Amino acid sequence: MSTTNVYQTEAPLIQETVTMNKVTETILAPTERLPSNGWWAMFLTANGLLLIGVLSVAIQMWRGVGVWGLNHPIGWAFDITNFVFWIGIGHAGTLISAILFLLRQKWRTSINRSAEAMTIFAVMTALVFPLLHTGRPWLAAFWLLPYPSERLLWVNFRSPLLWDVFAVTTYFTISLCFWFTGLIPDIAAMRDRAKGKIRKKILGFLSLGWSGTMTQWMHFEKAYLLFAGLATPLVLSVHTIVSFDFATSIMPGWHTTIFPPYFVAGAIFGGFAMVMVLLVPMRKLFGLEEVITIKHLEYMNKIMLATGMMVTYAYASEFFMAWYSENQYERFIFSNRLTGHYWWSVWLMILCNAVIPQLFWFKKFRTSIPVMYFVAIAINVGMWFERFNIIVTSLSQDFLPANWDFYSPTKYDFGITIGSFGLFFTLFLLFVRVLPTLSLAEVKSILVKPAGEKHRKG
Amino acid sequence: MLKLSDIIKQIKPPENVPLMVGVFLTPEELYHAAEKAMDKGYKGVDAITPFPIHGLDEVLKIPSSWLPYATLIAGVSGSAFMLWFQWWTSSVNYPLNVGGKPLFSWPAFAPIVFEGGELLGGVTTFIVLLITAYLCRPRALIKNPLEAKFTDDTFALLIPISKENNQQDVETFLKGVGADEIRLLTV
Fold it and tell me: In A, which residues are within 8 Å of B115 by CB distance?
């Protein structure tokens, strides 16, 4: 093995002064001390948001699903918007952990762990919505699980909604296996440093007896590569299948073949923006600036710019096809989106997703933390409204004018939406306190000089 | 090519023999020491490292993992099962005309065939990893045989003491390749 990397022409990702021991200390420190005031402030805020959601759900269960603003013809609105939004958020995590791994992008090592955790929490948050949409889930249990086959009738495997059930649950399971596999060696590192007896026992149990022998690493790396290979088509398929929920129907504005790539690009776009929203405070709060550098953030901004352009192209293509198709219903829906009842939300989406990310063409903005944070939040808002527009504008004014009606959300709709953010942030804040937020082994393996006498302490 | 004996070896837990541990401070030193140990013809040599060192498994001649085969078989079985199941439910067990589509409308079954393969393949990969990497063994759950620095920034070469690997000989060898510290680990 040679110590000089002949392929490395750019400046190193992580400064040469960062040693292996420093990586361990920096990443594990937050899990080994009491939480700071900054963490408590964020945690209590997230708890507050979650409480709003819990109260809204409690009232919804007490009074019934009628407290939501749903009515004919809009039987889907905030709940499915939130579902698609949160499933989409998860995609960035899998893209970072699987696709960038297969493409040998070394910069992913600093962000993959937290992005994968984000994926899992986002999918968990998303799964709350179909459950709530059943109204009183404990009553739904008897017609959903276990599948009641006393009528001897099977589910319809031709239904996109059923594909969705399989896609989302598989996605969650595989992401969880992938994430936990990567965690095993790092939990072992925590176990070896643990002071308390109970802490040692819990971490010893979770690390499954990892000792770091080359034999173990060989199997581990093989499994990791296989997971990356499995997760790559999976990440592309999940939002494809979610988009089938719409694309296979005959609704104008939904019935289009561009939906699968359009949804996947949008999911990665919005997901990266959410990673940014989480990482910027995290690296500041835990002093991770040396391992999550501006360079890492800049690379993420470039991906946001690229996927943002794809999404913009998809918008343009949708409008063009509506005009070019000569289909009066398609033409009506798309002109109605720009000038109709929901014009403000469509223009907000275009502003947030197509215009604001163009700032990232300039290196000055790409490397400025306030600017990238602003853009990331704008993209999240834009992506939320993208789903809202697709769902609500098409449903509100379809083929028959007699069938038209508008949707206005109630405070309970807003309540569960706010609550979903609370749930997501609460889970993420707990994660950063108890588990290593970066992959120790992977970061160590990309250090300029993984070891060397002069970099060792003492 | 993977041999059956390797598969059996990867399932059977390693024997508990005394190990001679040579401690190294850099991956380069460990790598060169491992090369020399293999040249000397020691059997069953392994290493402990805080991160995977690429190529070291080949130097140590660790037989490659049978994990990919397990994943492939499980993935194909998962897909095949879901294809069969969808065919059986919709054309044999309860044939039902849905929108005039054929009973076995395979293009509509493709997404679930794919997901079935993914799910079984992925879960199998995880379970087989636990087996091949000797994880989840009750005795191993207690603690690492070595201390914290070996999951932090220190490297170790492990040479089992056996008939082929004489203790005195191994100790002189490790001294010769510049081990920072040498110790005997009895399990």
Answer: 163, 166-167, 170, 237
